[in-house]
């Protein structure tokens, strides 16, 4: 889980090689990047280690966010794909 300022969210330019290297180093599948405002949660999922730069088919990020107390159930969740 990687928090990002929601105002900068659309400007993300992922470094696929660096994300893959970090994923391998820490034994994780990839990165779940998210940002939050008063009304919305935005998520992107990066899995380049397994040949999928951005995975928008499987969306576990909001499930994890929804169980954290700091995120309200009244927020809308958006999934963005920037392939």
Q: Note the main sheet.
A: 5 strands, mixed
Overall pLDDT level? 75
- Give Rg in angstroms: 13 Å
Secondary-structure element order, as H and E?
A: EHEEEHE
Instruction: Classify the secondary structure makeup into a structural class.
Output: alpha/beta
**Backbone shape:** elongated
Give the uncertain stretches in residue-range form. Answer: 79-83
Per CATH, the class reads Alpha Beta
Total number of helices: 2
The CATH homologous superfamily is termed: Diaminopimelate Epimerase, Chain A, domain 1
Question: Which features does this protein show?
Answer:
Diaminopimelate Epimerase, Chain A, domain 1, single chain, 83 residues, alpha/beta, 5-stranded mixed β-sheet, 20% helix
Q: Can you tell me about this structure?
A:
It contains two helices and five strands, in the order βαβββαβ. By secondary structure, the chain is of the alpha/beta class. It has a single domain (2-79), classed as Diaminopimelate Epimerase, Chain A, domain 1 (Roll). Strands 1, 2, 3, 4 and 5 form a five-stranded mixed β-sheet that branches. Strand 3 (40-47) and strand 4 (52-54) form a beta hairpin. The model is unreliable at 79-83 (pLDDT under 50).
Secondary structure layout:
Elements: E1 2-3, H1 16-26, E2 31-36, E3 40-47, E4 52-54, H2 61-66, E5 76-79
Provide a compact summary of the structure.
The chain has 83 residues and is α/β, with parallel strands linked by helices.
